[in-house]
Amino acid sequence: MRTFDYARAETTGQAVSSADNSAFLAGGTNLLDLVKIDIMRPDTVVDINRLPLKTIERMPDGRLKIGALVSNTTLAHDPIVRSDYAVLSEALLSGASTQLRNKATTAGNLMQRVRCPYFRDGVSACNKRDPGSGCSAIGGFNRSVHAVLGTSDKCIASHPSDMCVAMAAIGAGIVVSGPEGERTIDFLDFHLLPGDSPEQEHALKPNELITHVILDAPIRGNRSHYLKLRDRASYQFALASSGVIVATSGGVVQDARIALGGVGTKPWRASRAEQSLRGKAPTQANFEEAARIAFEDAKAYKHNAFKIPLGQQAIVRSLTTVIA
Ligand SMILES: Cc1cc2nc3c(=O)[nH]c(=O)nc-3n(C[C@H](O)[C@H](O)[C@H](O)COP(=O)(O)OP(=O)(O)OC[C@H]3O[C@@H](n4cnc5c(N)ncnc54)[C@H](O)[C@@H]3O)c2cc1C
């Protein structure tokens, strides 16, 4: 059995001055899983649950400031989130199970690790777990939790989060505090593509703590929706998902946001597809064209080619739902 030290941070300052190779403990639903199966091996687990990071507040400029320790359940049911960011509420409620959502936190969800079985089995070649060892998924069974967008010849694991797809569509800043002070990372720059170094998954520096996520102000008059397609109706990660936000005026699309889950190696913002819709009528043909553009750069592997038409259908259906 591998042992680790347990420490409890009473202040942000204490948390960010933790020893090397420590891990923050929030809800523990991902960290403790991975410690138990020996994939994450922190020397110290730093419990951050006493930090005052559990509030949701509307800022004077209309943005929404969410504490890192706000649970997925609290966030999904928050009245402002339900009314102004429906896509986020729906995405959160499509994830995991009620019990898990009660424990899972906003920052923990952002930081959750991939579900690739070759990463999690602890023995297969996996560049993410053991850099330079190879990627068993590329020549192996790569159907459900493997991506078609943003992959590299080092890693094809899809990003597992539903919440992050909605946040990618909304736009957000991630506020972090570290030994060198506070900074804000744009949401779209937070998760990294695997490239040649899939072990680097995010833009946090050592010992940096996420303190808040600040959502952009809602688009005036928007309607939004999160559609998750999966092998079974609950307790399952997305094969493909689509989070869309649309505002129309005078019979044309004024603004459109499209983000995808289950198909990308990071929460995937389909910017070119969004651009193709602006100023156009919200028709089935235009939605299909946006969906085609979203997957222009997709690369399928042996078992997951079906994700391209599935992801395209998710886009068309979610857009159709918000326009109906
Ligand atoms: C059976 C099962 C099914 C699931 N299904 C889904 C699903 O359908 N959709 C989905 O999106 N998710 C799903 N999940 C994942 C779940 O959402 C995550 O486990 C959860 O969001 C992680 O949050 P946590 O607070 O428990 O994080 P923890 O386990 O406490 O931490 C996770 C990681 O985040 C780091 N961390 C935590 N807080 C901070 C912070 N403030 N700053 C910096 N780093 C931090 C930790 O050190 C750790 O590395 C599922 C999980 C399980 C076990």
UniProtKB/TrEMBL annotation:
This is FAD-binding PCMH-type domain-containing protein. PANTHER family: OXIDOREDUCTASE (PTHR42659:SF1), XANTHINE DEHYDROGENASE SUBUNIT C-RELATED (PTHR42659). It comes from marine sediment metagenome. InterPro entries: CO_DH_flav_C, CO_DH_flav_C_dom_sf, Diverse_Substr_Oxidored, FAD-bd_PCMH, FAD-bd_PCMH-like_sf, FAD-bd_PCMH_sub1, FAD-bd_PCMH_sub2, Mopterin_DH_FAD-bd. It holds the Pfam family CO_deh_flav_C. Residues 1-220 form the FAD-binding PCMH-type domain. SMART domains: CO_deh_flav_C. One of its GO terms (molecular function) is oxidoreductase activity.
